[in-house]
Amino acid sequence: MRPILMKGHERPLTFLKYNNDGDLLFSCAKDHNPTVWFADNGERLGTYRGHNGAVWCCDVSRDSGRLITGSADQTVKLWNVQTGQQLFTFNFDSPARSVDFSVGDKLAVITSDPFMELTSAIHVKRIARDPADQTGESVLVLKGPQGRINRAVWGPLNRTIISGGEDAVIRIWDAETGKLLQESDKESGHKKTITSLVKSADGSHFLSGSLDKSARLWDTRTLTLIKTYVTERPVNAVAMSPLLDHVVLGGGQDASAVTTTDHRAGKFEAKFYDKILQEEIGGVKGHFGPINALAFNPDGKSFSSGGEDGYVRLHHFDQDYFNIKL
Amino acid sequence: MAELLPMKDIEATASRLGIDLSTIDLHSIRLPHSDNVGIDSDDEDVLNEENLEFESGFGNIIVVDNLPVVPKEKFEKLESVIRKIYSQIGVIKNDGLWMPVDHDNEKTLGYCFIEYNTNQEAELAKERTHGYKLDRAHIFSVNMFDDFDRFMKVPDQWAPPETKPYAPGENLQHWLTDAKARDQFVIRAGSDTEVLWNDARHLKPDPVYKRTFWTESFVQWSPLGTYLATVHRQGAAVWGGATTFNRLMRYAHPQVKLIDFSPGEKYLVTYSSHEPSNPRDANRVVINIFDVRTGKLMRDFKGSADDFAIGGAGGVTGVSWPVFKWSNGGDDKYFARIGKNVLSVYETDTFSLVDKKSIKVENIIDFSWSPTDPIIALFVPEMGGGNQPARVSLVQIPSKEELRQKNLFSVSDCKMYWQSNGDYLAVHVDRFTKTKKSTYTGFELFYIKERDIPIEVLELENKNDKIISFAWEPKGHRFAVIHGDNPKPDVSFYSMRTAQHTGRVSKLTTSKGKQANALFWSPVGHFIVLAGLKGFNGQLEFYNVDDLETMATTEHFMATDIEWDPTGRYVATAVTSVHEMENGFNIWSFNGKHLYRILKDHFFQFLWRPRPPSFLSAEKEEEISKNLKKYSKKYEAEDQDVSLLLSEQEREKRRLLKEEWEKWVNEWTRLHEEEKLYRQNLRDGEGSDEEEEYEAKDIEVEEVMNVTEEVIDFEYDQE
């Protein structure tokens, strides 16, 4: 089917997230307004106004009641999804890069960037059921390793936190004590900045994308490297189909070099790979800037991509897609 | 040599300089070539070699003898005279001139020492002033300081040289005996140099040998493929062997920049250019010719860059490489270079000029050897404002007899192309039109092998067309020309003999509007790749010249280099590091079918390993191509087997991958089930797994639609 072009952001996209039911799509961009869309027809439902900087990441609670957004304005905000009302603001001393709700939505993991002499950090906040009881206190703060942490997500049963960032190492932390449990091996792991990290639907494995032009699939519990997907471009965004054994990699050359090269050289495609055979299946073209964000609808029948070009492209798969045989 | 700094020190230095180490990608840092920043190559021998080079460190000092013996009063005068003479040649170091004085009579001793900045200057000073006549009685005798030492060490008694026992070498041609008749190639990417088999049947390369920091600038195969040459600061080296690559020989030549093999790979020519201390002087050029097998220096040529720049593109460092062109035919008998108004032809028996003198040719600017015979084609441009016409001549060596000559009028530019068998010579001539404002193009075609060497003139149909590219069919009688005036040029094919016109050139076809600017004939002829490089972004057209039809049109986006394998079966197209993106290479079959693709960052070189010429005679080859069906049956069967095996292997591989994945998935499902209860607790008892999510429940909802109040009359009519 022809993709639905969703033009609502004025700056490059940074993150995309479907709610659990798969009927809403939340998008974050460098303009200050996270936006919610109908995941079916791409109609814009509304924006969440209040941030004063690029919004890097968001997550939505399982009941689609709460939205949490992390922004470069050094705040993380909680929103009422339905009304767009700001419920709470967490203040930090540096830009917030990533946010993730735990299973049960009672905790959130937030990463903050290194800034001035501050190092990067991972914060765990308790999310109160009633916004009136919400406090800004951290349950746990992990002082981060070198460089920015681009993504931190919860491990199975909220027992661990998985992080990846500029130092190209994936780390698993104990979510209770803050102890570093495991680190990915320098040899087999990524060679450059990890830009994105996404869990499978059941949380058993996760996929990391890196500027070293590859994406890697890991076991969440043991941090065993299971698969490697090699591409020609730095990977900015990754997604996994919940339905078929497919992974999608998005990226493209650095935005600063885009204007100086042919559009074909940019390779701003969303590349589909067979998850098991690690072979390329095909690509979806369309963006005229690098792809910064990718998300699969939880039903696996559509996906959306967000680019440096400021567009969100919503793709519903044709029947052919489900019959692909390698 | 730099010592390894502990990480702490590096961090401290970085913070002092205000650099955030975490923002630096160490892998993106490229060190300049030819500078190892104090980190030595892992090759121990290279280290030893360095020690050899700088034996004494007095290489920049000369001793000037036969000076006048003067008393104290005249000392300063003599010194200033000497200083004047020797500072013209190079920069004398501070306190670099020392004239010893006899203590008894305070007279000079008749010699002095001069220390220059560089060895090259000292050598030059020795060359220029040895035998310099200051006056009748004082003829300078100049020696290198090091030479005294060296000659002093010569033993007085002659000792017979030791006879080394014969050590059998490896079969250097072992790669030709590959059972699958594959070809090798070398690639250089990043700091790695790698030799690989082109395993086209398996659609992948098969590694042979890999080495990091193998060379400091580039690698080069010898013309028959026996050796792989590497270039280092201390000199060049050649490598080869049966199964791996061992170093066979080294050729000391400090700061060597360029190398060239003779066609029969008997000799290696090395070139270096040295910056002079005085910026007004031209660069100093050193060219050495080595015997490849023994490593012996056969002859060296030294001089300023200007001496070697004639005939080149001109400019400040306009030495056109190779300086020496070798006569072909595999015997490496002659080599030649252009000088001012002369053509110097040397023979390798004595490494001196043929007949002890150069051939005088006024204003010669270009020459080339016939690929098979000792014949030189040379070009002399117009002189005297057009009074003396331009001229192309064919000269036989060693007789120096002129075989044929053709005068050309109002020539602006001229290029010579030999056909690979030396049968034909095409001279591409750009001529001025009468107004001298524009040029038009024609070809002078020489039939070398026919009696009296007839010449035919070919002009393009459209006189305004520019020639973009020209190429002879190897071993054939056809040639291809890309010509045109507009962005999409035409490609024409001509034949030197056709059925209708024996001994006359005729056009076969012209295809219009091609996206091509370069021609790559298959080394066995018949097929050609019309390539659109640079501006055309790597358009490729595989063309069959026998049937005059296109076999495939394709693209290797941004391709910079194209090379046929020596057998004409495969074509490699590569994107080298001139582009930042897309680096790597593609392998195609001769008819344009894409076989495989390898991506490598910082890709510098792709070179097929050449093969020596076939031992089959022309008749035998003819016979084989006639009975091709018979021979090809065997190979087709082999191909079939391989492809069956391949698909079998592929299926097996996939099955294993699938099995392995299943194992993971089962494990995950098990754990997921185990944790189900915990998860439910975390979600306050809400069903946690997807299937429960969509469980249908009947929920009765009562909703108040409307509330109206109505006063109903109710009478309390009760008794």
UniProtKB/TrEMBL annotation, chain A:
WD repeat positions: 6-47, 48-89, 142-183, 187-228, 284-314
Signal sequence region: none
Subcellular location: Cytoplasm
Superkingdom in the source lineage: Eukaryota
Molecular function as annotated in GO: RNA binding; translation initiation factor activity
A GO term from the CC aspect: eukaryotic translation initiation factor 3 complex, eIF3m
SMART domains: WD40
GO biological process, one term: formation of cytoplasmic translation initiation complex
InterPro entries, per database record: eIF3i, WD40/YVTN_repeat-like_dom_sf, WD40_PAC1, WD40_repeat_CS, WD40_repeat_dom_sf, WD40_rpt
Keyword set, alphabetical order: Cytoplasm, Initiation factor, Protein biosynthesis, Repeat, WD repeat
Subunit structure: Component of the eukaryotic translation initiation factor 3 (eIF-3) complex.
PANTHER family, per database record: EUKARYOTIC TRANSLATION INITIATION FACTOR 3 SUBUNIT I
Family statement: Belongs to the eIF-3 subunit I family.
Role according to the record: Component of the eukaryotic translation initiation factor 3 (eIF-3) complex, which is involved in protein synthesis of a specialized repertoire of mRNAs and, together with other initiation factors, stimulates binding of mRNA and methionyl-tRNAi to the 40S ribosome. The eIF-3 complex specifically targets and initiates translation of a subset of mRNAs involved in cell proliferation.
Protein name: Eukaryotic translation initiation factor 3 subunit I
UniProtKB/TrEMBL annotation, chain B:
An individual GO BP term: formation of cytoplasmic translation initiation complex
PROSITE patterns the UniProt entry points to: RRM
Major subcellular location class: cytoplasm
Listed InterPro entries: EIF3B, eIF3B_RRM, Nucleotide-bd_a/b_plait_sf, RBD_domain_sf, RRM_dom, TIF_beta_prop-like, WD40/YVTN_repeat-like_dom_sf
Sorted UniProt keywords: Cytoplasm, Initiation factor, Protein biosynthesis, RNA-binding
Molecular function terms, GO-annotated: RNA binding; translation initiation factor activity; translation initiation factor binding
Residues in RRM domain copies: 60-147
Key word 4Fe-4S present: no
Similarity field: Belongs to the eIF-3 subunit B family.
Subunit structure: Component of the eukaryotic translation initiation factor 3 (eIF-3) complex.
Protein known as: Eukaryotic translation initiation factor 3 subunit B
Organism: Lupinus luteus
Upper classification of the organism: Eukaryota, Viridiplantae, Streptophyta, Embryophyta, Tracheophyta
